[in-house]
Amino acid sequence: MDTFMEFYFDEVFSTMQRDGLNERFKRRELVEYFNTVIAGCAKGQNKSDNATCKSFVSSALRYHNRCKTDNGDVCLMGKYHNLLYIAMKLAFDWSLQDNGTVAALLDELYACEGTFERIFLGAIFGTSAPYFLAGWKSDFMDKEENVHALVYFLDHATNAGLEYRDGIQSYRFIDVPLESCGRASPVRVVIQMGAAEILMILLRFGARITSDHVSSNPIESILDRLKEYNRKYPYELVTCLKLSLRAVPRINLTVDKAALKHLELPNDYNYQRKLILEKYGEILEDHLVPSSRCGLRPVELKHLCRCQIRQTLWENFELPFGIQKLPIPMSLKKYLDLFDD
């Protein structure tokens, strides 16, 4: 396989037009070609499909890195960069299990782009919507395959313990900002879309629900949007709120620093309670937020334990599959995995 790939890159790929893989159908044609090659080489060399797919992805990475190095360590883009998307699709198609190879592919994508939009946006918006946001179309067949691919790469990124630095800020794969969405985090974009299914996936894998440079706490954004519906709340948005509340100990609202000068603590309990009653009284009356999650009464010990255990698992890159390793009843495993309130 390695010999074939070296010949292909030197004799065939090198003659291809620089923009020859810009169109999605061209990339898909090449994916189908390499699918056939991988199947044939695996059978002819009596190797597993996974081992043969690993050889292709490794060869693609070596070729991309060699071209990048020859260009002063700057990606040449065009067909050279699109080769990474082909490797990404093949790794998913063949369910490549070699964690080091998949992690190296993700690292190279981030080194060139500084984002993982090609993995996240298709799962959030579908296959064609990213074209209007970022000028490209997803390499996966439909939204369902995009979601499966997202889970596949989330799993590998977690197992590899991948983290990426942007200036002084460090992100895990799941929290890397999306450039075409104003550098909002994936979880914030999902909440804005009201995509409860994708939100559940991100929360299970440990996506952070925190404020960032884009706006305030995402839960606060949900509450603000719910206020706009005059108590006729959309189901998907309510579901996003309920899922989000499972992943945090309690709601902490963004407060005016000037208003806190007279307080001893910046998250003063009484002030938070007063603020949430003033801003979201109708939502509380409609029982969309449990009183224990907004400061009206103490948070349940069971829920606090869930948050602390999940935090410990997150710190050790064990969400969500590490939950299944715990010696506890299945009902508690489902509770820790955010399936139950």
From TrEMBL:
Record-linked Pfam families: SOCS_box
Domain SOCS box: 297-341
Stored InterPro entries: ASB17, SOCS_box, SOCS_box-like_dom_sf
BP GO annotations: intracellular signal transduction
Coiled-coil segments on the chain, per record: none
Keyword entries, A-Z: ANK repeat, Ubl conjugation pathway
Record keyword Transmembrane helix present: no
Stated name of the protein: SOCS box domain-containing protein
Native organism taxonomy: Eukaryota, Metazoa, Ecdysozoa, Arthropoda, Hexapoda
